[in-house]
Design goal:
The structure holds two protein chains of two kinds. Chain A is α+β, with helices and mostly antiparallel strands. Helices cover 25% and strands 51% of the residues of chain A. Chain A has a single domain (2-152), classed as START domain (Alpha-D-Glucose-1,6-Bisphosphate, Chain A, domain 4, 2-Layer Sandwich). Chain B is α+β, with helices and mostly antiparallel strands. The radius of gyration of chain B is 19 Å and the shape is globular. Classes of the chains: A alpha+beta, B alpha+beta.
């Protein structure tokens, strides 16, 4: 599955960058985040309650950051396991660009989902991923005291 | 697989059920027909600590004609809708939609309210309730409230029901003699979830349609109405040109999301195919 999108957040680039690197801000922004900790400067561990439709599964996962260019971009690799429900892993690239009225956050993500979650949830995985991304940015913008500015719809592709 | 251990209670009244639900909070799930819930429990995709069986609650049962409204209880099964004379007469769109819901064995157990509360974007009842301008009757800790279908389906699997609410029934304005309707669904096999579907009604006078409602489902995160296409068709003489314009408008306005086997573009194409078929059927 691919999930690509752009979000315009009404806050300057350094603030958005700082927010994306602040695990307290992330903890409040990630929907269902129960625990988050920075193990090393480039490694973050988290526990997330994934709650969408029929699925309520707790995922334990880790995030590895790389190619970090402050105030510009970074790459991350992630993997998570939800026990009997299944697993997810993938990689994502995030870029921040200056834009009128704030910061444009562009992201491209490739993920694969396996186990029961992949079999049963497959039909709506794209829609679920988009919902989670939208929820995240809404909370994130609120944490920064800004808001999400409307943009053209973000395309989701298999 | 087998479900993880859970407690089970079967309250006898709505008040008792609401009390149990408020007490157990997020860990409880309501069970009625169980056609979706039990599968996810057995797959261990969710592990609620308690199931509250609401099938004894008489307030949630039956189909009644109440003046200009048809009241469908949340516990009414798909089969009851299929076999109901009241539905056939006053909400014929629902009767046309029923055969598309899975198979008879599932329809014998699955419920109207269960399908609405679950809010699957590919399901038939959420789309029909939008098209028919239905009103959801919801009971929660602070009493009864009514929510229009258009405000009920918020996002993927997300409705305006809170975790301590119970959907009791739905009210649907009865159709009159001038109502025409069409229910179309494209699926790979009978009983599968739709790749794309359309629930449409309108008032017909000669070759003019008014008060058009076109709801597409299984194309986005919720069922979606084609407001621009509705406005375009409304009150005009329906001919080939108008149909082809409406198809273009609907394809442009409905934002589609891909699923595992069908691209967003394919769904966008099908939106037009469905609308064209429906308009031709409704005007014939």
């Amino acid at each position: 599955m691919e999930l690509n999108g752009e979000q315009l957040i009404a806050a300057p680039i350094p603030e958005v960058w700082k927010g994306l690197n602040d695990i307290d801000v992330l903890a409040k922004s990630i929907p269902g985040c129960e625990e988050i900790s920075r193990i090393a400067p480039e490694e973050i561990h988290a526990k997330v309650m994934f709650k969408i439709g029929p699925v309520r599964a707790r995922f334990a996962g880790k995030l590895l950051l790389s190619d970090i260019v402050p105030d510009q971009s970074c790459s991350m690799a992630f993997e998570g396991s939800g026990g009997a429900a299944g697993f997810a892993k993938g990689k994502s690239r995030v870029e921040l660009k200056p834009s009128e009225g704030g910061t444009l956050v562009c992201y491209t993500t490739e993920a694969s989902i396996g186990g029961k979650l992949g079999q049963i949830g497959g039909r709506l995985i794209s829609a679920s991923a988009k919902k989670i991304a939208d929820d995240f940015f809404q909370r994130f913008a609120a944490e920064l005291g800004g808001e999400i500015l409307p943009l053209e719809g973000s395309p989701v592709k298999e | 697989m087998k479900a993880a251990a859970f407690d089970y209670v079967k309250p006898e009244s709505l008040t008792e059920a609401l009390g149990l639900l408020a007490e157990a909070g997020e860990d409880a799930r309501l069970i009625a027909g169980g056609q979706t819930l039990l599968a996810t429990l057995n797959m261990r995709l969710s592990e609620p600590s308690i199931l509250i069986d609401i099938t004894n609650l008489s307030e949630l049962k039956g189909i009644k004609l109440d003046g200009k409204c048809l009241r469908i209880g949340a516990l009414v099964t798909h089969t009851e809708i299929e076999d109901s004379d009241l539905i056939a007469k006053h909400a014929p769109l629902l009767k046309a939609a029923v055969p598309h819901i899975a198979h008879r064995a599932i329809r014998n157990l699955g419920t109207w309210g269960g399908s609405l509360a679950y809010g699957d974007p590919a399901a038939e009842w959420p789309a029909c309730s939008l098209t028919l301008d239905a009103t959801m009757i919801i009971h929660g800790p602070s009493g009864e409230r009514k929510v229009a279908a258009k405000d009920f389906f918020i996002d993927l699997y997300t409705t305006s029901l809170a975790s301590d609410d119970i959907l009791v029934a739905t009210e649907i304005p009865v159709s009159d003699g001038a109502q025409v309707f069409c229910f179309q669904e494209l699926a790979r096999r009978h009983g599968d979830y739709a790749v794309a579907g359309l629930a449409a009604v309108a008032q017909k006078q000669g070759d003019v349609l008014t008060q058009c409602k076109f709801t597409f489902f299984s194309v986005g995160a919720t069922p979606v109405m084609a407001f621009k296409a509705q406005a375009l068709i409304d009150g005009k003489k329906l001919n080939e040109q108008l149909i082809s314009d409406a198809v273009k408008v609907a394809r442009a306005e409905i934002e589609t999301i891909a699923d595992l086997t069908n691209s967003a573009e394919a769904k966008q194409h099908l939106v037009g195919v469905l609308l064209e078929r429906a308009l031709k059927q409704m005007i014939a």
